[in-house]
Design a protein that fits this description.
Radius of gyration: 18 Å
Strand content: under 5%
CATH superfamily: Ribosomal protein S20
Structural class: mainly alpha
Helix content: over 70%
Number of strands: 0
Largest sheet: none
Order of helices and strands: HHH
Length: 85
């Protein structure tokens, strides 16, 4: 079976994309986890802004569906609201 140059290039690109996608997803999960673990309201609000921004970027790039993003942002918002009360 022949190995066409385009096929070789596509596999090389796929590996790079996969590593980037995994890294972005990991960063997003870490930011969300840090936000949910924070109990100080002022620090949590800063982390919340960063987490929401990251989630929105993931939606724009096509890594997350919009309803999944909405659910995650809602979870973060509930946490922030529980700290302020």
């Amino acid at each position: 079976m022949d190995r066409h140059p385009q096929q070789i290039k596509r596999e090389r690109q796929d590996k790079k994309k996969h590593l980037l996608n995994v890294a972005r997803a990991s960063d997003m999960k870490t930011i969300i986890k840090n936000t949910l673990e924070e109990n100080d309201i002022s620090k949590a609000k800063v982390l919340y802004k960063k987490a929401v921004s990251t989630i929105d970027k993931m939606v724009n790039k096509g890594h997350l569906k919009k309803n999944t993003a909405a659910r995650r942002k809602s979870r973060l918002t509930r946490h922030i609201n529980s700290l302020s009360s």
